[in-house]
Automatic annotation (TrEMBL):
Binding annotation for NADP(+): 10-15, 33-35, 78-80, 106
Protein name: 6-phosphogluconate dehydrogenase, decarboxylating
GO MF term set: NADP binding; phosphogluconate dehydrogenase (decarboxylating) activity
Positions of the 6-phosphogluconate dehydrogenase C-terminal domain: 182-467
Record keywords: Gluconate utilization, NADP, Oxidoreductase, Pentose shunt
Protein family: Belongs to the 6-phosphogluconate dehydrogenase family.
Lineage, broadest ranks: Bacteria, Pseudomonadati, Pseudomonadota, Alphaproteobacteria, Hyphomicrobiales
Length: 472
């Protein structure tokens, strides 16, 4: 008998937490997993949390599908890549026209688009949904970025809207566009997440090595900053990470953790797609590059032996400079991220609602932060060609870019790497100057390749008379 409102396959951490969240909101969820033992563990957990009456464990896939009310909405929460394609193939024989697969992992949006196109003629809906907020978010309220088959979206809308985080009573779940739109937006969310994390780490480097602050002292500063304009989840958790003490040694845990950052791909995808569309996203690119350099620990250690330890004399930047530099850097980075989304919307015909995206990022997701509310208002007014020219943000940038400048300059002379903050500053300086230096690039291009250049009032495919360098 079909009694479940929705089905969910894949009971690893994120999947189980989403299922428990659905059950808690009063919906009945049928669950299935490849390994039966995981289903048993989930059932025990649901029982422990008093939610077993809203969960229906099913060990057999056909039986699982039959348990879900038609037209069916079936969430799959398996590893991105081939496991998703395999799962679709396994499910297909059991589905009926009008049913939908709702894939909630961190999939590459072009894969999502391909799967959407593949299932459309079969009349099976495909929704690629970005879910942000980690384990806790999945359990208590993530930010949910929906893309794909709009008709089938309405079947699942009530459930996903109910389980999402809320900001001032509004659900942080929204349908954003066709095909791969939801996963695209989630990817750029992650790119921005990379930028935020890297900029925070760069500021921590100055605190630790330039200002000689202990982890505990740094933690206190981040906690204080979280009360001000930088207020955000990532600033908040940075305070907690810096505060944590290792049980075995009594030392700050952060000082024992190896300085090699992992990455699963979404940052790289963001940087690639931005480049492909000709949208500068230097903060994301910088953050991805910084993670890659961090992972080359052996090479770094060897290079340090050659050049000697960085000469980190005490710096004269203040904590206030660092706070403002971080704010300015973050605004530049978000401006870039939204510009990437705007361009992708245009190229793919998605009509992505930028104000809504900023709104559903105000709670639940990893990049939730106070200024996203201001960003959503800017987009609601339709003001934003680029956030850097929206009055609210112009005011913040005017107040903070001098600090960003001071911090980046101190980093250069003090031998601190600052890939992301310096990239943000250079972008700002490039974007706000009416006269740049690409005139020289155009001259060079014409010199060696007759690529042509433009002179105002004289035409756009002009050529210079250049001296020959042959034989010299
Ligand atoms: C989120 C996160 C999450 C992501 C991790 C790991 O929004 O909840 O973005 O989806 O998987 O942050 O990403 P990396 O391993 O690439 O850092």
């Amino acid at each position: 008998m079909a009694t479940a409102d929705i089905g969910l396959i894949g009971l690893a951490v994120m999947g189980s937490n989403l299922a428990l969240n659905i059950a808690e909101k009063g919906y009945t969820v049928a669950v299935h997993n490849r390994s039966a033992s995981r289903i048993d563990e989930f059932t025990a957990e649901a029982k422990a949390q008093g939610l077993e009456q809203n969960t229906i464990p099913k060990y057999d896939l056909a039986d699982f599908v039959q348990t879900v009310k038609a037209p069916r909405s079936i969430i799959i929460m398996v590893k991105a890549g081939k496991p998703v394609d395999d799962m679709i193939e396994q499910l297909l024989p059991h589905l009926e026209p009008g049913d939908a697969i709702i894939e909630c992992g961190n999939s590459l949006f072009t894969d999502t688009q391909r799967r959407f196109d593949y299932l459309k003629p079969k009349n099976i809906g495909y929704l690629g949904v970005g879910v942000s907020g980690g384990e806790e978010g999945a359990r208590h309220g993530p930010s949910i970025m929906v893309g794909g088959s709009k008709d089938q979206w309405h079947n699942a809308e009530a459930v996903l809207t109910a389980i999402a985080a809320q900001f001032n009573g509004e659900s942080c779940c929204a349908y954003l566009g066709e095909g791969g739109a939801g996963h695209f937006v989630k990817t750029i969310h992650n790119g921005i997440e990379y930028g935020d994390m890297q900029m925070i780490a760069e500021v921590y480097g100055v605190m630790r090595d330039g200002l000689g602050m202990s982890a505990k002292e740094c933690a206190e500063v981040f906690k204080k900053w979280n009360q001000g304009p930088l207020n955000s989840y990532l600033i908040e958790i940075t305070g907690h990470v810096l505060d944590a003490v290792d049980d075995q040694t009594g030392k700050p845990l952060v000082e024992l953790i190896l300085d090699k950052a992992g990455q699963k791909g979404t940052g790289v995808w963001s940087a690639i797609v931005a480049q492909q569309m000709g949208v500068p996203a230097t903060a994301i690119e910088g953050a991805v590059a910084a993670r890659s350099i961090s992972s080359r620990k052996d090479e770094r250690v060897a290079a340090e032996a050659i050049y000697g330890k960085p000469n980190r004399a005490k710096t004269d930047v203040t904590l206030e400079d660092l706070e403002k530099a971080l704010l300015a850097g973050k605004i530049v980075s978000y401006a870039q991220g939204f510009a990437v989304i705007a361009k992708a919307s245009e190229e793919n015909g998605w009509a992505l609602p930028l104000a809504t995206i900023a709104k559903i990022w105000r709670a639940g997701c990893i990049i939730r932060s106070r200024f996203l509310d201001q960003m959503s208002s800017a987009y609601e007014k339709g003001e934003a060609v680029n956030l850097l020219v929206v009055p609210d943000f112009v005011a913040i940038m005017k107040d903070s870019h001098l600090s960003l400048r001071k911090v980046v300059a101190a980093a250069a002379t003090g031998e601190f790497p600052m890939i992301c903050l310096s990239a943000a500053l250079s972008y700002f300086d490039s974007y706000r100057q009416g006269q740049g230096t690409a005139n020289l690039i155009q001259g060079q291009r014409d010199f060696f390749g007759a690529h042509g250049f433009e002179i105002e009032g004289r035409g756009s495919d002009l050529h210079g008379t250049w001296p020959s360098t042959l034989g010299k």
